[in-house]
Amino acid sequence: MLTHNFNASEKYLLKLGTQLVFHSHANLHTHLVGVHHLLGSWGCPEHVALAGLFHSIYSTDEFRDFALPLTEREQIKGLIGTQGERLVYLYSAATRESWRRSAVSAEKPQLADRLSGGPLEVTEQEFTELLWLWLANNLDIKAREMRANGVGVLKRANFWHQVAERLGGEAVVSWQQVYGRHVGRKSDFMLEVKWHASRAKRKLTSRVKKLFKG
After folding, report:
1. What pLDDT, in 10s, does the model give residues 179-198?
2. How many beta carbons lie within 10 A of that of residue 3, not counting itself?
């Protein structure tokens, strides 16, 4: 685990109350730390791993349950450096549709900025580092989801496999650890049906128990 600025950063996150925000069968703080640890285990540069600790702190196209105001950018830069904070900002600003399209394209990344409505300029290196963040985010969420439910919604498993293959090395190994034992055994569609059926069954059981208690 990388330790430079980690303790001060984690203390700051706890002060913000991230441990009180529900996220992926745990809380936002657990998720942020999990992404940081995963990036560190892959041997990513320190600024990338530290960016993982704050990756969704400004909110994102998909996650809006917590949003640190952009007026706090200088505070974040002081904790994880300018490079790390820029990745956090880019992660927040990029639209889901644009980065997913660019992730599987051989062309120059073309990201859209959900905050300004215009284009979001990134270098090839920055885009690669963002891919590490996006993959770590997904794998941390899916691993926890599968531990809780036995199986998760895998409809984008092939997409994430493409991202992992693009990054290579530890990314592919981690994808296999999370998705590998499910993909190929059944179709993504059937796995998704099973997951929803399991959740519906749990809800029904809970309601029946409440009726009998009443």
Report:
1. 987 776 544 444 454 545 55
2. 8
Distance CA 45, CA 68 (A): 24
CA distances from 109 to 6, 16, 102, 195 (A): 30, 33, 5, 34
What does DSSP assign to residue 176?
A: I
Q: What is the token pair recorded at 168?
A: 């290579």
Three-class DSSP category at 67:
coil
C-alpha span between 95 and 115 (Å, rounded): 9
pLDDT tens digits, 70-91? 999 999 999 999 999 999 999 9
The number of CA neighbours under 13 Å toward the Cβ of 192 is 8
Amino acid at 22: F
Give the contacts of 67 (CB within 8 A, at least 6 positions apart).
Answer: 58, 59
pLDDT of amino acid 187: 47
171-204 core/surface letters (b: 16 or more CB in 10 A; e: else): bbebbeebbeebbeeeebeebbebbeeeeeeeee
